[in-house]
Amino acid sequence: TNDSKSTSKNKVVAVVGGGLVGALNACYFAKRGFQVEVFESREDIREAKIVKGRSINLALSHRGRQALKQVGMEDTIVSKGIPMHSRMIHSLNGTQSPIPYGKKGQYILSVDRANLNKELLSAAETYSTTKLNFAHKLLNWSTETGAMTFLRADGAKEEIQADLIVGCDGAFSAIRKQFLRQSRFNFSQTYIPHGYLELTMPPINGEFAMKPNYLHIWPRNTFMMIALPNLDKTFTCTLFMPFDEFENVTTGDQVIEFFQKYFPDTIPLIGADALKRDYFRLPAQAMVSVKCSPYHLSDKCVLMGDAAHAVVPFYGQGMNAGFEDCLVFNEIMDQLNEDFSAVLPEYTRVRVPDDHAIADLAMYNYVEVTFTRIRYHEAVKRWHWQDKVINQGLLCVAASVVGGSYLLVRYPPNMPNISIEQLWTRLQALKSPF
Ligand code: FAD
User: Fold this and answer.
1) Which residues of the chain have pLDDT under 70?
2) Which residues have CB under 6 Å of ligand 1?
3) Which of 30, 111, 313, 433 is a Cys-bridge partner for 127, taking CB atoms 3.0 to 4.6 Å apart?
4) How far, in Å, is the centroid of ligand 1 from the Cα of 176?
5) Could you tell which of 15, 27, 41, 52 is best to mutate to test the pocket of ligand 1, judged by most ligand atoms within 8 Å of the CB?
C-alpha cells in the first residue's frame, strides 16, 4: 500500500471516467490523501478479454512523462514504451527519409494504450484510500446537491455524493452536460472531414517489418498513413483520410488498388489478404475537437482531459495535455492549500488558454513543443511567428505532421496545388521545425 502522509483528509473525490486521465488523476488525489472513488462505465479492462479503445498505441512525450513522474509512474511506463527518435518519411517511390525529433538524443515513446490504462488503474489501487467502481455509468448529476446518479451493470441505479467531482469521462463527457446549462459557459465541438482506421503490420521472421525506432509517416496530399511500433514487434498503422475517400473504397480489390497507388511499399508488409480483410473490420472512426470554458463549476466540479478539451490527434498531444492537466491542478493545489473554492477558478484561469492553444496547435504544427514544457499558448505565439516567416511569398500551412501526427494543407487562393513532398522540401529549405 502506497499511503500518503497527509492527515485530515476525510474529503471524498469522485473521479468520473477511469480512462487514461481519470486513472492518473486518481493517483494524484490519492497521493494527497483524499478518499478517491473512481467510476468507470466499462468493465475492468484488466480482466476484459477484448479491450475496445480508440487507438491501439499512442505517442507519449515530455509533458505526459513529467505528469507520470510526479506519481512515480514514469519509469514503469517508459520501460514498456518504444523510443521513436525520428519520423521516417516514406515517399511514393519507396524512398525513406528520417527527420529527427528535436535535438540529438530526444525522442518520443510509442506506448500501448490498454497497458498504460491498466498500469495506471493498478497504481491507483495501491493506495488504500482508492476504490475503483467499474460498470458504473454516470447518467446525470445535480449541480444543486452534487449528487451523481450511476447506472450499474445489473441495471440498478446508485446515487453518490462527493466533495469534489472530477470529470474525466472523455470527449462526450456526461459530467460536462450540466455545464452546458450554465450561463456564460462557452462550448464548441467540431468534427473534421477526416476519419481514421487502424491496420496491423505483423513481424517478419520474428522481427519488426520496418525499422522500429521511428514514427513512420506516408504523407499523401490530403491523406496520410502513420505507423507506430509495438512491443510484440507489430506496427499499428493508422490511415487518416477524408470520409469521402473512405466511401470510394468498398471492395477488397479496391483496397489493393488504392494501396498500390498510394502506399505500395506497405502491401507486402501488411499482406494483401490481411489488408483486404482488416480494412473492413471496423468502419472509419470520426475525430472531434472540443473546446470549452470555464473548466469548473463553483467549488464542486472540474473537467480534465478530453472532457475539457478533445483535440484532433495530428499533434500527438491529446493524452499528454490531459496528463499535464493533472500535474497543473496538483501544482495549484499546493499553491492554494487544497481550498477547492480557490483552486478550481485558478485552474480554469491557468489552464484554459493552454488547452485552447493545444487544440489550435493540433490543427497546425510546431514540433519543438513536443520536447519542452513551455506553455502551450507560448507555443502558439511562436507558431504565429513561424507562420509569418513561412508566408513570405511561399505558402500557408494549416496543419502538418508532428509528434504522432499529420497534415492538411490549405493553399492561399493563388497557389498552385503542390504535393506534400514538395511542401516538405520547401519547408525544409526554410529550416522549418517540422
Ligand atoms: P478517454 O480516454 O476517452 O477516457 C474516458 C473514460 O471515461 C473511458 O474509460 C470511458 O469508458 C469513461 N466514460 C465515458 N463516459 C462515462 C460515463 N458516463 N460514466 C462513467 N465513465 C464514463 N494522444 C496523445 O497524447 N498521443 C497520441 O499519439 C495520440 N494518438 C491518438 C490517436 C487517435 C486515433 C485518437 C483518436 C486519439 C489520440 N490521442 C493521442 C488522444 C488520446 O487518445 C486522448 O486525449 C486520451 O485518450 C484522453 O484521455 P481521457 O482519459 O481524457 O479520455
Assistant:
1) 1-8, 50-54, 363-368, 370-434
2) 16-22, 39-42, 54-55, 58-59, 137-138, 168-170, 174, 196, 238, 305-307, 313, 316-320, 322, 404
3) 30
4) 15
5) 41
Q: How many CB atoms lie within 10 A of CB 335?
A: 12
Tell which atom from ligand 1 comes closest to the C-alpha of 317.
Answer: 25
Where helices occur in 105-218 by DSSP H, the ranges are: 113-125, 175-180
CA distance 254 to 272: 12
Helix (H, G, I), strand (E, B) or coil at 159: strand
State which fold the 12-85+104-189+288-371 domain adopts: FAD/NAD(P)-binding domain (3.50.50)
Ligand 1 nearest-atom number relative to CA 171: 3
Rounded Cα distance between 64 and 326, Å, is 10
> Distance between CA atoms of 395 and 141, rounded to whole angstroms?
49
Q: What is the pLDDT of residues 239-273, one digit of tens each?
A: 998 899 999 999 999 999 999 999 999 999 999 99
For position 75, what pLDDT does the model report?
Answer: 98
Contacting residues for 150 by C-beta, under 8 A, at least 6 apart: 39, 133, 136, 137, 138, 139, 157, 158, 159, 160
pLDDT of residue 155: 96
Predicted local distance difference test score (pLDDT) of residue 383: 56
Predicted interface score ipTM higher than 0.90: yes
Helical residues (DSSP H) of 307-419, grouped into ranges: 318-335, 340-363, 376-391
pLDDT of amino acid 385 = 54
- Name the closest-CA residue to atom 4, ligand 1: 19
